[in-house]
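Lab meeting, action items carried over

1. Structure of the three-component assembly. Owner: GW. Status: complete.
Input record:
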Amino acid sequence: MSLSKKSPIVIEQLRKRQMFDLITNGKRLDGRSLEDIRDLQIEINIIKKADGSAKVRLGNSEVIAGVKVETGAPFEGLENKGALIVTAEVLPIASPYIEPGPPDEETIELARVVDRGIRESQMIDLDKLVLIPGKIVYVIFVDCSIINADGNLFDATSYAVVAALLSTQLPIFEIHDEKVVDTGKKQEPPIRTIPVSITSIRIGNNIIIDPTAEEEACMESRITITTNSKNEYTAIQKGSTGYFTLEQIKFTAQTARVKAETLRTRLKELIK
Amino acid sequence: MLEIKKRYVIPGDVIIEGNYRPLMNVIKKDNIIIATRIGIAESSKDGIKVIPLSGVYIPRINDIVIGKIIDNSSLSWEVDINACFSAHLPAQDVFGRDFSPAKDDMKKRLAPGDLVTARIITFDRTRDPMLTIQEKDLGKISNGEFLKISSTRVPRLIGKRGSMIQTIEQATQTRILIGQNGILVLTGKNDEGIALAFKAIKLVEEEAHTSNLTQKVKDLLNVSEEVTQTETNNSSVNNEDYVNNSNTDNNSSDMENDHSSNITTESPKEVQPN
Amino acid sequence: MDQTILIDENGKRTDGRSIDDLRDVKITIGVLKNADGSASIEFGKNKIIVAVYGPREVHPKHMALPDRCVLRCRYHMSPFSTDTRKNPAPSRREVEISKVMREALEPAIMLEDYPRAAIDVFVEVLQADGGSRCAGIAAASVALADAGVNMRDLVAACAAGKVNDKIVLDINDIEDKEGSADMPVAYLPNLEQITLLQLDGILTESQFNECVEKAIHGCKMVYEIQRKALIEKYFGNDLPEGEEKELEENKEN
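Predicted assembly:
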C-alpha cells in the first residue's frame, strides 16, 4: 500500500527562501543555471569480478553498477530473446534517512524506471543472445548499489547502467552436448542504441534539471524522460504528488532531448 | 439575488464567477468559486456554499451528538461518534472535580455499548473532540430504537424550524432524538408508529435533495392537516428546540443550512401504551 | 516496429474500434455498503472495484500527519484477473502502480481539510485488459466524491499508444503487448493539470506530442462519463425540466 509521507529532510525556511529567490532569477544554490547538469564523472571496470561495471558520480550522488552474465531460461512470452534484468538498491550507507530492510516503494519505482529506460529503448540487441531458442538464453543482470544519495538517483543510476553495459566484456557461451560451456573468450555486447535519462522537477512555475536532494525536498512534481540515439522518447515517468501542465510537459520533453544528446557523446567515448 | 450557474454540483464544477465569499465546501481560485463536493450549490448574502449530499460526519464545536461508549482509560471514556475521530468524555465531567479512579467506578456509570447524548465542547486541528453530558437534556439514553443515517441528511430531517421532524413525530406518536452526527434514537407509543417513523426517516434520507419531499412524507404518513407549531399535550417537544438559523432566501431549495442548528433533546420519558 | 497487424486496411483495430474510439466505459457508484464511498468500473474488459474509507483515524497513531491527512492507496490484482494466474502477493509492479496512483489522486484532494486523519483508497482489479491503472484512477476519483472527500477537481485518466505506427486512443491488452508505445495519463479536467504520465515504447517528438494530446482528449471523454454517473446517482431522474436545461447549457461553456 502506498502512503503519503513527509519528506524526511526538513529544509530551513531561510534556505528555502534563498532557493526560491535564486530560481526566479534563473540560478540555483550551487551556482548552476536551471538547466545545468552537475559534474558527471564515470569510471569503468572498477569491479574485476563483474563482467562489466561502472561507478558514476553525478554531483554528490554516487552509484555503482555491476554486470553479471549467466545463462538461463528466457522470460515467458519472449522465448527468442536474451534476458536483461536491472535492479537497484539504495544502501543504508547512502544517507542518514535510509533504514535497512526490504525495498520501499521509492526504491522499487527507481529500479523499475531505470530498467524500463534501458529495456524499452532496446539498448542491447537481445535477439543476438539466444543459445537454444525457448530454452537457454543469455541472462544479463545489472545490479546497482546507490552509495551516496544527493538527488536525481534516477539519472545517476541510469548512467551507471549504461556505462557498465557499454564497457562489459560479454562471455561467449556455447552449447556442447546440450550443456552450456563458457569458452573463456569475450565479445562486445550487441549495442543498438544509447539511452540517456534526464530528470526535471517543477518548483512553482520553474522547471529545473538534475535536482539535488535539497531541491527534491522542495519539489512539487518530477519527470524522468529517456531518449535513444535517434532522439526518440522511450520511457517517461512522472513522479511525486504534484502536477504538470501540458506546456510544461512539452518543455521538459524538448529539454530532455537536447540535454541527452550532449551526455550521449560522453557515454559514447566509453566504447573504444 | 445572486445568480448561480449551477445548482447541482460535483467536485471541480464552477459555481459562479466574481468576487463572492467562499463559505463551505467551495474554494476560490482567481475570482471563480469552485465546488469541492457533490451537493447543492446555494448563495446567500454571506457567500456561496455547497450543501453536501455525502460524506462522513466531521465534528463541530457545540454540535449535539449521540455517541456510543467504546472503552475507557483511567481518566476518560472513549466514545464512538460516527465521525472521523473518536471523542473523549472526561471522567471529571460525570464524577466531578474530585474524581478518583480508585473510588469511582467508571464502568458502572457508563459501560461499553451505552449510548449518550452529548455536546462537543472542544475540537480543533490538533486534538480529538471532547464531550460533555453535564447539561440539560444530555446524558445516558436508557431506551429506544437505534438508527443511523448519513449526517448530511440531518438538516433535512429536522426541516425548517423543526417542521419535518415534528410532522413525523406527531403522525407516528414517537419521540425522535437526533444527533448532528446522524445517530437517532426513537421511542414511541406502539410498534407500528415506530416502524412508520423509520420508514419516513428512510424516505427523507434517500430523497433529501428532491423538491417535493415534504409532500411525499406527508403522503406516507397519511397526514392531511398542517402541522401546528404549538405544544401539544402528549408530545414533550419544545419548539425552541428546533430553531434553525436558516437563511431567509425564499429561492433556496428545501435543503437547510446545517451549519449552526442547535438541537437539544430531553431524556426520553417512559411512554406508556394506552 | 510491431510485426503483428493490429489495424486493418479499413482502419479497424482488433476489437473493431477506430483509432480514436474509447472502449465502452460503465461506472456504477455506491456498490459497497460498508465503504464510505465506492465505485465499480468496466473499461473495455477491465473490471475494477474501488472502495474509499475515510476520512478516518490513522492506526498506528504515530503515522498521522498533524496538518493534513494521509492518503493511502493500494492497487491490487486478483489472482484470476490476468491470462496467467497471478500470485496474490503484491508484486513490484503493483507497488509501483499503487505509488503512481496515489500521486495522481493526491493533487486533487484537499488534504489540509482533514488533519490527523487518513483516507484509504483500495483499488481491486478483478479482470485486467490493458489500461487498468487508468480505469482504477477514474473509479477511485468517483469513489472519493461518493465518500464526500473535498476535491478541487475530479481525476480522469486514459491511455494512448502507438500501434502499427499510428497513434491510437485507449489501447487494450493485445495492443499493449504487441504495439510499440503505451502512455497512460491522468488529468484534472477543469484545472487542466496532468497528474500521471508514463511512457513505455518508442515515440518521435511529433508522435509524442500527438500521443499526449490524444490521451488528454481521452481523459476528457472519461470525465464526461464520470460526471454523468455521479449526477445520475445523486440527483437522479428527479431533475425538473428547468434544471436539466441549465446543466445542459453549462456543459457547452
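2. GW to write a short summary for the group page. Key points so far: Residues 232 and 238 of chain C are 9 Å apart (CA to CA). Chain C has a mean pLDDT of 90.
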